[in-house]
Write a structure and sequence with these properties.
The complex is a heterodimer. Chain A is mainly α. Chain A is 64% helix and 0% strand. In chain A, helix 2 runs antiparallel to helix 3. The longest helix of chain A has 23 residues. Helices cover 72% and strands 3% of the residues of chain B. A two-stranded antiparallel sheet of chain B has the order 1-2. The chains are: A mainly alpha, B mainly alpha. At the A-B interface, helix 1 and helix 2 of A face helix 1, helix 2 and helix 13 of B.
């Protein structure tokens, strides 16, 4: 990646996994924006103890995902993909029922 | 419930673009650094989540985080009641009120590194007023070599520097309570305590939450004052999260672990902001 990186962004030390990571975030934001314009969110109270919009639930879900992965790799020697999968399940559950 | 109109967010777009250049690009760089071992500007090795694993299991980080939590807890426990007490004791009007406001605002105007330097001299046992005074009173006070003394000095310095902010916020909140409420309380024969408990305290709820939010965030990011006063010592006794991070990034030049640590620090702050923001929102809704 380094050899082909333009000098302008060489200082950012890009790696393919991080490109995928930020592309996913950008796509998520784009999808949420389009979704919002097509069908404006309705604030509601689900399993979480507060009234949330779709964006709130995504934010909470992403925080839970990040902390799940960190706790997984910090507390166990298991494959980190297990933590990622658990976090993703939590994210989906929060988006759907949160 | 009625759908929310989110189109106003488009108006925030210019600011978002500015933030993208000043904050998001550096954040992206930090994420890149956190998954690589940076050997030199041209030599980098991808290590995946290795630095996150190391940082999450680093006992020094756990120590710094624990000290940080205790420090922020002490700061809130002292500064919020003290600030409220000062605000309640302040004159409501006249030249005394103006003079008190100016005097209270003075510590807030002093730059952080100057505060550290002032307290470093003030607390010295040989020439400092506080250090000499305590020694003459018979206290065995050595903030440079005793961790308890160092903690007390850092805490006292922060209380001196930032309690006025809490006091000023509470003062503004108290002045916003209409006089009619006090008249009604007087007619009912309410005691001074009853006025505070059932009138002033509920009316100050929003202001107090903002004060707690500001002080918690700020104390959680404290760096300059303890760095100048104690340098994080004795040992690691007053090394808080920011200072530990700086040691890693600048002192040891461990850019990968420092980047991973920065992201974890960022996530901690994000969770705290989210919780406090929701508390504020609930307080506003319950008004």
């Amino acid at each position: 990646m380094d050899d082909s990186t333009p000098p302008l962004f060489a200082w950012m030390a890009w790696t393919p996994p991080v490109v995928v990571f930020f592309s996913t975030i950008a796509v998520m934001l784009l999808v949420m924006t389009v979704w919002e314009f097509r069908s404006p969110t309705v604030a509601r109270r689900g399993l979480l103890p507060l009234v949330t919009t779709r964006g709130d639930r995504l934010f909470i879900g992403l925080l839970v995902l990040a902390w799940t992965v960190l706790a997984w790799i910090g507390l166990s020697d298991w494959d980190p993909r297990g933590g990622l999968l658990t976090g993703l399940l939590a994210l989906v559950a929060i988006l759907r029922w949160g | 419930m009625k759908p929310l109109n989110q189109k106003a967010w488009l108006m925030v777009l210019p600011v978002l673009l500015c933030v993208a250049f000043s904050a998001v690009l550096p954040l992206m760089t930090v994420v890149n650094y956190s998954v690589q071992d940076i050997l030199s500007p041209t030599q980098k090795v991808f290590v995946g989540l290795e630095w996150f694993r190391d940082v999450m299991r680093d006992p020094e980080l756990h120590g710094a985080l624990w000290r940080q939590v205790v420090f922020s807890g002490c700061v809130l426990l002292i500064q919020v009641p003290l600030g409220m007490a000062v605000a309640l004791a302040m004159p409501a009007q006249g030249w005394r009120a103006s003079m008190t406001l100016v005097l209270l605002a003075l510590p807030l105007l002093v730059p952080w590194n100057v505060v550290g330097t002032v307290w470093q001299i003030f607390a010295r046992e040989d020439i400092g007023l506080l250090g000499q005074g305590l020694s003459r009173l018979g206290f065995d006070y050595h903030y440079a070599s005793d961790s308890g003394d160092a903690w007390a000095t850092v805490l006292l310095m922060d209380v001196w520097h930032w309690t006025p902010l809490v006091a000023l916020l509470c003062y503004a909140g108290l002045r916003a309570i209409p006089e009619a409420y006090y008249q009604a309380a007087r007619i009912d024969g309410a005691s001074r305590y009853a006025v505070f408990r059932y009138l002033q305290l509920p009316k100050l709820r929003g202001v107090l939450l903002i004060a707690v939010l500001l002080r918690l965030m700020d104390s959680f990011m404290i760096y300059t004052e303890p760095f100048v006063l104690t340098g994080g010592g004795p040992g690691n006794a007053t090394t808080f999260l920011s200072q530990y991070l700086t040691q890693k990034a600048v002192g040891q030049f461990d850019l990968g672990p420092a980047a991973a640590f920065s992201l974890i620090y960022f996530l901690i702050i994000l969770v705290m902001c989210f919780l406090l923001f929701n508390l504020l929102k609930q307080a506003e809704d319950s008004r």
